[in-house]
């Protein structure tokens, strides 16, 4: 499969973003255990955030192997992740709208999520193209 430059760059951004996410969630669990998110997230969102310790590395492996499943999983994880982060941060944003402008937290998660959503369809097309054969009949 021939992979264009933009596809390689997009896949690299996916890898970096999901590796960072996996590391952040691993650190959260090391620091706070399985209840690391209990102080600010309802139980279903706590379960989701803990599951990212498995889902983020799975995205990294599948995207690294240039599998369409990796692009699909990345999209699903980021949609759910962005929504979950907006839910848990909404009360704080209502009190202080500048909270969104912090360089770590909701802003980069939102921007990365928008990148994933905007790039997922063309990237999925690019990684699912059938191989062109060079043989003659």
Element layout with pairings:
Layout: H1 5-32, H2 43-64, H3 68-95, H4 106-127
Any overview of this molecule?
The chain is mostly helical and 137 residues long. Helices cover 73% and strands 0% of the residues. The protein is built from four helices and no strands. The longest helix is centred in the N-terminal third of the chain and has 28 residues. The C terminus is likely disordered.
- Main β-sheet description: none
Question: Helical stretch count?
Answer: 4
Q: Which term fits the overall shape?
A: globular
Please tell me how large the radius of gyration is: 17 Å
Separation of the first and last Cα atoms: 21 Å
Unreliable stretches (pLDDT < 50, length at least 5) are 132-137
Short description:
This protein is mostly helical. The chain is built from 4 helices and no strands.
Q: Can you give keywords for this protein?
A:
mainly alpha, 4 helices, 0% strand, disordered C terminus
């Amino acid at each position: 499969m021939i992979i264009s430059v933009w596809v390689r760059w997009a896949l690299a951004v996916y890898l970096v973003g999901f590796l960072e996410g996996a590391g952040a969630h691993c650190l959260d669990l090391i620091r706070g255990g399985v209840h690391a998110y209990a102080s600010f997230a309802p139980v279903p969102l706590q379960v989701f955030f803990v599951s990212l310790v498995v889902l983020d590395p799975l995205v990294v492996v599948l995207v690294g192997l240039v599998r369409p499943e990796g692009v699909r999983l990345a999209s699903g994880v980021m949609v759910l992740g962005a929504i979950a982060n907006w839910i848990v941060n909404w009360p704080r944003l209502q009190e202080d709208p500048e909270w969104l402008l912090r360089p770590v937290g909701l802003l980069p998660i939102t921007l990365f999520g928008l990148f994933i959503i905007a790039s997922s369809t063309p990237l999925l097309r690019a990684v699912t193209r059938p191989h062109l054969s060079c043989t003659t009949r």
